[in-house]
Fold:
Amino acid sequence: MIIAPSLLAADFSRLAKEAQRVSKSGADWLHLDIMDGHFVPNLSFGPAVVKAVRPFSKLFFDVHLMCSRPEILLEPFAKAGADEIIVHVELGEQVEPLIWKIKNLGKKIGLAVNPPTAITEAEPFLDKIDLLLVMTVNPGFGGQEFIHETLPKIQQAEAWRRERKLHYRISVDGGINNQTAAECARAGADTFVAGTSLFGQRSLKAAVTKMRKTVNGADPGLADLAI
Ligand code: DX5
Ligand code: ZN
Structure:
């Protein structure tokens, strides 16, 4: 189980310190949300900020591109220190060449699916990706409410992975707190992106520990073992 705090919910006036705080919290990854004001109606930060933060954390950098033209950003983010780059399946025929470009840059490949988009749109790419990101809110803003209708998509992603003996991670992003993380874990998710619910706690470390305990207890694999 991977816990990935989202830097979007951190204090932007001290991002380096916040990245250090995430490193010391026991979290596994740092999730970085890149918004272009076009694919989503908001702007966040670019490669220069990722590069500036990189020396302050040894964690795996999970870079989520909510951008209409990710092709111009892949190399800058790779150079800035991304370990994985996630692009959106809604980009249609751009997706296949984007996947190859990320692979050629030597980075892990993620594919994200928005709530209104059918999970079947991701099906042709399942054997080429390292992570499938099921968006559990409409992207663009932190602090939104989890959309429960996305749970069957997680179940479908898990069924495909099992049936086809694939190894991609199943990540969830948006409105993830201890309760919704447990629901996602039971549906088959193994990677949990959370902003508001983790940074909203006084102790990030305690919040990460609690979320890890919660999702480990809700793992469907463990439920099988108990039978
Ligand atoms: C949403 C972003 C998320 C966001 C999650 O557009 O992709 O990663 O940071 O924030 P919370 O956990 O506050 O919903
Ligand atoms: Zn994200």
In short: The pocket of zinc ion (ligand 2) is lined by residues 6, 31, 33, 64, 173, 193 (CB under 6 Å). The two ends are 21 Å apart (CA to CA). The longest strand covers residues 29-35.
